[in-house]
């Protein structure tokens, strides 16, 4: 029998991280952040505080100007780029600009992480269809992204982020373009991923979202992270 280590390595650790764009001022300063494995964290803060920039550091789209990032126990700075790419494939990401591939259908966009992982269409088709039905895109499976509404693009991006059951799920305003009912449904999806073991980090202005799940909430103000607090759900049970 193999016993789990008493203190498993956090999914992500940032130590004294700072970020500046080019020669501009530091937009993030002295960020200390640890995401324990299987944790659920919300990131809030006013527009321009640096939430999107911090998420981009977390999924290694940006390099910090100073400080250290450890992802899944690995010091990112010391890794070869092939290893960095392998670590990034363990992250599901939902970005504000969605980054869907315009010439691939909704189905193909969502299936892409599985295709890249070498799975055959036969093995994943029913999972992709089930997930698309769950996010309310069952009727748009053959559509190309440029023909989708903002909310449909967002749901497609979320489905793509979760289809491969990532170890770490990072989402930037994932309910920004949908009505409250669909927002609650999407939050259920994130909660379910978390229940299955994924570490979840969501940046949001949506206080309603935060109120519906028991999670740690971090606040960014002018590029600095404030002490954590745990927000119990205002309603009993898990996500709405
Ligand atoms: N590519 C870039 N080049 C230069 N400055 C940038 C770039 N991206 C963001 N910034 C600056 O970094 C700061 C933080 O921006 P960021 O988008 O991370 O904030 P945010 O909290 O996500 O804002 P919002 O809630 O409006 O999305 C802002 O001052 C912004 O102007």
Automatic annotation (TrEMBL):
- Tell me a GO biological process for this protein: cell division
- What binding partners and quaternary form does the record give? Homodimer. Forms a membrane-associated complex with FtsX.
InterPro entries, from UniProt?
AAA+_ATPase, ABC_transporter-like_ATP-bd, ABC_transpr_LolD-like, Cell_div_FtsE, MacB-like_ATP-bd, P-loop_NTPase
Chain's role: Part of the ABC transporter FtsEX involved in cellular division. Important for assembly or stability of the septal ring.
State the family it belongs to: Belongs to the ABC transporter superfamily.
In which organism is this protein found? Algimonas porphyrae
Per UniProt, residues of the ABC transporter domain are: 12-239
> Which membrane topology term applies here?
Peripheral membrane protein
Tagged with keyword Cell cycle: yes
Q: Name one GO molecular function term.
A: ATP binding
Which keywords describe this protein according to UniProt? ATP-binding, Cell cycle, Cell division, Cell membrane, Membrane, Nucleotide-binding, Transport
Using the record for this protein, list the coiled-coil segments as residue ranges, or answer none: none
Name this polypeptide is given: Cell division ATP-binding protein FtsE
Q: Where does this protein reside within or beyond the cell?
A: Cell inner membrane; Cell membrane
The record's listing under Pfam families reads:
ABC_tran
- NCBIfam families, alphabetized: FtsE
């Amino acid at each position: 029998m193999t016993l789990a280590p008493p203190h498993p390595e956090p999914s992500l650790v940032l130590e004294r991280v700072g970020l500046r764009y080019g020669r501009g001022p530091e937009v993030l300063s002295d960020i200390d952040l640890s995401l324990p494995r299987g944790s659920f964290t919300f990131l809030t803060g006013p527009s321009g505080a640096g939430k999107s920039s911090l998420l981009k550091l977390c999924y290694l789209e940006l390099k910090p100007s100073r400080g250290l990032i450890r992802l899944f126990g690995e010091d990112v700075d010391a890794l070869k780029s092939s290893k960095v790419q392998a670590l990034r494939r363990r992250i599901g990401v939902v970005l504000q600009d969605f980054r869907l591939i315009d010439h691939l259908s909704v189905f193909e966009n969502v299936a892409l992480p599985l295709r890249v992982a070498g799975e055959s269409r036969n093995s994943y088709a029913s999972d992709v269809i089930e997930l698309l039905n769950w996010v309310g895109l069952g009727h748009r499976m053959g559509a190309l992204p440029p023909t989708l509404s903002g909310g449909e693009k967002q749901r497609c991006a979320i489905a793509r982020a979760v289809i491969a059951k990532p170890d770490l799920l990072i989402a930037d305003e994932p309910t920004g373009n949908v009505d409250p009912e669909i927002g609650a449904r999407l939050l259920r999806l994130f909660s379910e991923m978390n229940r299955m073991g994924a570490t979840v980090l969501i940046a949001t202005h949506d206080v309603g979202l935060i109120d519906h799940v028991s999670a740690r909430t971090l606040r960014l103000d002018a590029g600095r992270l404030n002490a954590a607090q745990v927000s119990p759900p205002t309603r009993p049970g898990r996500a709405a």
